[in-house]
Amino acid sequence: MSQPSQFAVFGHPIAHSLSPRIHQGFAQQFGIALEYRAIDAMPEAFAGAVRAFFAAGGAGANVTLPHKAAALALADERSEAAARAGIANVLTRLPDGRLAAHNSDGAGLVRDLTERHGVDLRGRDALLLGAGGAARAAAWSLLDAGVQTLTIVNRTPETADALADAIGEPARVHTRYWQDLANLGSYDLILNATSAGVLGNGLKLPMSLVGARALCYDLAYGPAAIDFIAWAKAAGARHAWDGLGMLVEQAAAAFELWHGQQPDTEPVYQALRAGI
Ligand code: NDP
Fold this sequence. Notes:
The chain is an alpha/beta fold. The protein has ten helices and twelve strands. Helix 6 (133-144) links the parallel strand 7 (125-129) and strand 8. The site of NADPH dihydro-nicotinamide-adenine-dinucleotide phosphate (NDP) has 30 residues, from helix 5, helix 6 and helix 9.
């Protein structure tokens, strides 16, 4: 009998990762036998650990903090989404043994918004808080999905400017200073792509940002998203969601890449939701 295909998620720390559970849940839908491990690798050991994993027959890997930039750097091929984001969260062994890098975060975000939450992104004026890796992936995908304007505000303004320059659509993409948030008026879609919640630092955001019927979305999920969601609801947002659905959808995009099958994400999402 052939061995089950080998998959893994690399990160540091990684014990908390939901990826093994998500991928096993998808695999069960198709009767696919796979092994999916969580591998804790320090930054200096990451490239070696990845190469050892694939040399031993690994078929694909997810990559999370702090290794997403290193994953892109070590790959032999890069998808457009990974190149644009500047980071990769998916590595796949090609038939000739070389490694391909992909980024499924932006697609995962857009799928969660449009398919799970039924949001039509076209024509929306969006505010993106943060300009790190997740924000970069999100920015391109939101624009592809048709948002009318995207205003990027980052604590370090140079990073927001660099992202806007890289996108190169000055008519649609603007940057503003964090200290001016109270003067920006309101938006109908607000995305928190900062790691403030994960780091346990609350964001002080003016309620004036939240327009009538605004949708608010924190890319973080669980306890890390509680403050932002409470702020959004207090400010009158029509809906406030966390990023658990994005996590499941980005995993589904990787699963499709590896197995050529589109899983039903809802039961996996609901099981995780019940657990947090
Ligand atoms: P990065 O470290 O790449 O970027 C962090 C961003 O947060 C930077 O823009 C940083 O600003 C900003 N930031 C950090 N602390 C503060 C603060 N106190 N006030 C204001 N801004 C702050 O992280 P990622 O982009 O990888 O992750 C960002 C978030 O997205 C995390 O919550 C992560 O969990 C979530 N995420 C969710 C995914 C999902 O599937 N649901 C997938 C990937 C990420 P500066 O440039 O000034 O340092």
